[in-house]
Amino acid sequence: MKSETMLLWWWLNVLTFKRYQALKQVFGDLDAALTELSPAMLKELGLKQESIEAAFVRLDEFDAPSYLGHMKRLGVELLSIEDEQYPVRLREIGDAPVFLSYRGDLSLLDQPMIGVVGTRAMSAYGKRIVEHFVPAFVRAGLVTVSGLALGVDAVVAEETLHAGGKTIAVLGHGLANVYPSSNAKLAQKILTSGGLILSEFPLELPPDKYTFPARNRIIAGLTEGTLICEAPEASGSIITAELALEYSRDVFIVPGIIFDENFAGCHRLISEGRGKLVTHPDQVLREIGVIAPTTEKRIEYTPTSPTEAAIFTALTTMPQAMDELVEKTGLSSPVISSTLTMLELSSVARNVGGGQWVRC
Fold first, then answer.
1. Is the same domain home to 127 and 249?
2. Is position 69 within any domain?
3. Engineering a disulfide at 159: which of 134, 184, 218, 283 sits with its beta carbon 3.0 to 4.6 angstroms away?
4. How many domains does one find in the chain?
5. Does position 65 have pLDDT exceeding 90, yes or no?
6. Are residues 172 and 220 in the same domain?
7. Is residue 54 part of a domain?
8. In 10 A of CB 189, how many CB atoms?
9. CA-based angle 47:53:56, to the nearest 5?
C-alpha cells in the first residue's frame, strides 16, 4: 500500500478489518479501492448515510502535506496491518485495527506484554493491588499495557516506570492530545522512559462512547493476558476481559470485599468461571509461561558484537526454541547456539529445558 493511500484511509476513519477485507477482495488492494471511492462504495461497506457524508466532508478537507507536517511535529508515525512491524498478536484477532499510529519505541510490541486494567474510581485497595503486581511483572521482563485513563490505568504506568520497566498506553482518541489532560505529563514521562503510546484513530479525533471499547480490544489483543484489578459491572475493564476471553487470552481477576460495588464485575466473572482468581503475581507468571529471574535485580549487560546484540535482544523471559530465534534474528542455528552458550556463561541467558532459552 502506498504511503499516501494509507494516510488518506486512516484520515477518513471508515475502515474496520471486515471492510478492509471486503475492499481487498473486490479491488485487490487499498490503492485501487481509493481510485473508486464513492458514496455507493461506502454504503455497500455498511456505513450509515451520516457517516458517509462526514467521510466526504473530511475528504474535501484533507491536506496531505499539512497533515504530515503535524504528525512530524508531534513525533507520530503510522503503520498498517500490511506492514511487517505490525504486532503479530494483534494481527490474530478478528477485528484487528487496520491502522496504528504511535509515538515511542515500537520494538516493545515484540516483548511479552501483560494488560493491567481497572476502574477510574480506584480505591486504596485497588492501588495496593497495582503496587503488588506491577513491580513483579517488571522484574519478570513483562511490558505492561493499559489505557492511560484516570485511576488504575495511570497508576499502572506510574508503578511500571517507578520499577524501571516499560509501559504501553493505548488511547481511545487521536494522538494530538491526551485525555484526560491531567495525564499529559505522565504520557510524556512514558515516552522519555522508552515507552510507547498507541492509537488507531486520526490525530485530532476526540474521545467518544465508541472509542474506548475500541481501545479496549487493542489492549486485550496485544497481550499474553489481562489482569483485572478492580472493576464494577458494566465497566470498560469488564469489556476488556470479555474481549480477551473472545480472543482466547488469559484473564486474571483479583477479588475484593463482597459488599464493594467496585468489585462486582470481578466477582461475577469469577463466579461464572470466566477468569482465574489470583492473589499473587507468580500465579499470573506461571499461567502465561514466563520464567521469572531468580534475583530481583538483573545483571547489566552490554553485548560484545552485533550477533550477540541481535540474539540478546530477541531473548525475553518467555521461553523460545531455536527455530523462533532463527526467525527473529535471521541468523543460523550454529551461530545462535554458540552465542547462547557465551551468553549463558555471562549469566544473562538460561536454558530452561526442551531446547528453550530465556533472558535472565
1. yes
2. no
3. 134
4. 3
5. yes
6. yes
7. yes
8. 15
9. 105
Q: Examine residue 155 and state whether it is found in any structural domain, yes or no.
A: yes
Distance CA 206, CA 180 (A): 11
133-183: pLDDT as tens digits: 999 999 999 999 999 999 999 999 999 999 999 999 999 999 999 999 999
Cβ atoms within 10 Å, residue 85 = 13
Rounded-to-10 torsion of CA 107, 133, 281, 250: -60
Is residue 326 domain-shared with residue 186, that is, in the same domain? no
Would you call 260 exposed, middle or buried from its count of C-beta atoms within 10 A (0-12, 13-18, 19+)?
middle
Write down the mean pLDDT value for the chain: 93
CA distance readout (Å), 289 to 163, 285, 292, 320: 21, 6, 9, 11
Q: Which of 7, 98, 12 has its CA nearest to residue 52? A: 12
Q: Which three cell numbers stand for residue 183?
A: 495525564
Question: Could you tell me the CATH number of the domain that includes residue 330?
Answer: 1.10.10.10
* Contact call for residues 79 and 99 (beta carbons, < 8 A): yes
Q: Given a cut of 80, is residue 352 above it in pLDDT? A: no
Cα–Cα separations (whole angstroms), residue 313 to 298, 299, 308, 309 = 15, 14, 8, 6
**Based on the domain organization, do 119 and 260 belong to the same domain?**
yes
Helix (H, G, I), strand (E, B) or coil at 280: coil
For the chain, the straight-line distance linking the first and the last C-alpha, in angstroms and rounded, comes to 40
Same domain, 342 and 273: no
Residue 44 lies in a domain: yes
Residue-number span of the structural domain to which 329 is assigned: 306-359
**pTM for the predicted model, two decimal places:** 0.84
Q: Strands, E, within the chain: which ranges?
A: 77-80, 99-104, 113-117, 143-146, 167-170, 196-199, 225-228, 250-253, 276-277, 320-321, 349-353, 356-359
Contacts of 248 (CB under 8 A, 6+ apart): none
Of all residues in the chain, what percent carry a pLDDT higher than 70? 98
- 202-212 pLDDT per residue, tens: 999 999 988 99
What does DSSP say about strands 77-80 and 99-104: parallel, antiparallel, or unpaired?
Answer: antiparallel
